Amino acid sequence: NFPLDLAVLEVPSLNG
């Protein structure tokens, strides 16, 4: 399990 912050970094699509 990893923090949502890392997930956002891995999936720029979610971050925009």
Query: Can you tell me the overall shape?
Result: elongated
List the helices and strands in order.
HH
Q: How would you characterize the largest beta sheet?
A: none
Fraction of residues in helix = 55-70%
Task: Classify the beta-strand content into a percent band.
Answer: under 5%
Low-pLDDT ranges: none
Q: Span from first to last CA? A: 22 Å
Gyration radius (Cα, Å) is: 7 Å
Tell me how many strands there are.
0
- Briefly note the structural class of the backbone: mainly alpha
How many helices in DSSP terms? 2
Mean pLDDT level? 66
Quaternary state of the chains? single chain
Concise overview:
The protein is an all-alpha fold. It has helices spanning 4-10, 12-15.
What's the structural blueprint in terms of helices and strands?
Layout: H1 4-10, H2 12-15
Keywords: Chloroplast, Plastid
Organism: Fargesia rufa
Protein name: Photosystem II protein D1
What does this structure look like?
With 16 residues, the protein is mainly alpha-helical. 69% of the residues lie in helices and 0% in strands. The protein is built from two helices and no strands. The longest helix has 7 residues. The model has no long low-confidence stretch (mean pLDDT 66).
